[in-house]
Amino acid sequence: MREFKRLVGSKIGLVPLNWRFTDERKSEVVAKFAEYGFLGIQVSEKQANSSEYRNLFKQHSIAAAELYIAIKCDTESIADNSDEETKRQIDAAKTAGVEMIVFAVDGDAIRDQIASNAHQGPSLTPKALTELAEHFNKWSKYCNSLGMRASFHPHAATYIETPEETAALFSQLDENVGLCLDVGHWLVGGGDPVAAVKEYKSRITHLHVKDVDPQVLANLKAGKYEGMDIAVTKDKLFAPAGTGALDLNGLFAALNQVGFRGWLMSEQDSAWEPSEEKSLESYRNIERALTT
């Protein structure tokens, strides 16, 4: 693995949302992941359970860096089948040798409409917040028993979007539940990623690295979209790392100061065409920031 001047020991992985690849293209696309230089990937439950995908990742020396589990809830409580859904996905992750389980709260139509303006709408009751925390605490211990780590991912357009909502949840989480800091969603939620690194320090397990188009974000904050989903899909709210509002150099400097050595997962929810090449642009910008 290449050693960087900053964040020595860290690796660049990929959350390939913008690739939109099908099973028919899997051999071609996984080969392209490796050609670009990505060393790890976020796998789906389907991929984790597929020997074909597992063999492809192994063939191209791509690690199963993480698997993402979104917990459904409303303002009053989490879904009744949350334990069943979570265990099934964690067990699939174990089959694939996944390193990190990434917990999140599932999207909500009401919060989508007020993304970046969460103060305007409903929030979790204390009961629902405690249920979420107890769920993540319980299943993070199960992850640990299987040799995996666990983290929580604050996400815009959900009930844990803002820095304040994140802090309220983390006040009830065990220390073994880390923070997956998605710097793009943190910006949309009104946070400063550099400040988040300084606050959470070693609690940060890994990052989802993407940028935010400042004009699209300003329009979102101004209520010019019916929802965040439209801002993401129509106007490409999220941009390649190093091309928008994110202070990429400042972020990596802060991570270096706290001794971060985890995965840097390049991610875009959608991208202007050719969308796959935007992942390469992100990779190169991340690599440049790490080597200067």
Description:
There is one protein chain. It is built from 13 helices and ten strands. With 292 residues, the protein is α/β, with parallel strands linked by helices. The protein has one domain (11-291): Alpha-Beta Barrel (TIM Barrel), CATH 3.20.20.150. α9 (193-200) packs parallel to α12. It is globular. The model has no long low-confidence stretch (mean pLDDT 97).
Short synopsis of the structure:
This protein is of the alpha/beta class and 292 residues long. It is built from 13 helices and 10 strands.
Q: From the alpha carbons, calculate the radius of gyration and give it in angstroms.
A: 18 Å
Question: What is the overall shape?
Answer: globular
Oligomerization state: single chain
User: Biggest sheet, open or closed, and with what strands and sense?
Assistant: 8 strands, parallel, barrel
Estimated share of beta-strand residues: 15-25%
Structural class: alpha/beta
* Intertermini distance: 18 Å
CATH fold type: TIM Barrel
The CATH architecture designation is: Alpha-Beta Barrel
Query: How many domains make up the coordinates?
Result: 1
